[in-house]
Amino acid sequence: MNIAWLQLLPAVILLWLPRQMLRIGGRVFEFQRHHRRRYPLDTNPAKTRDPNDPSVSFRTEIVKLRNTIDFLRAGLGTVMLLGGMPGTEPAWQTMPGADAESVRLATYGRLGILLVGVLIQLFRFEHRSMLFAPIFYLTGVTIGLSGFAAGGFAVLLVWLVNPVLPNPAAFLAVHALLVVLLGTLFLGLGDLRPLLNAGLVFLPVVVSFLARRPLVQLSKRVKVSSSPLR
């Protein structure tokens, strides 16, 4: 068994870092608050999002810096862990001719790292516990696990149909379905990565159903003087 610890440990940190920790980095930008110009809030009803609307708003979510960081760290961490991209090798792999026990250990170990990473992003504590839909984190995992072709097309299509999806759970369910279909198309029936990918994407939906609690996206209005990380 070959474990590249200098590659594995950073991958685990990237995948397991709780989203809430990104707030710490946001404090670096607080010095800018005294230099920002204050603009009046746009109160046009046609442009104002209903705070009770549970659907996922692309326009709202795409501009959040934390979402971009989630996408990049999840994609990079997945590639570092599993390889799959040109010029990359898995951080945890077995040598040719390894026994079945070593193969199972490496397989379950890598799967466990990804599974724990998704669960860490899912459970969130903001004065009370909630189930957060880690959409951009799972987007990064999808690109890293299924590749640019299958994963990229799945992500593109789910955002195209997103306007008719009522909530984050529906978004992730469609995302998982597209990963299976396009992953099978691009990678073949014998490749298990699409099924693994779909399972990780669908996991928050299963937890939400079992816990009887909705998946949420935090879309709080942030004051002008607050951190740009939301």
Automatic annotation (TrEMBL):
Keyword presence, Transmembrane helix: yes
Segments crossing the lipid bilayer: 135-161, 167-187, 194-211
Keywords: Membrane, Transmembrane, Transmembrane helix
This protein's name: Uncharacterized protein
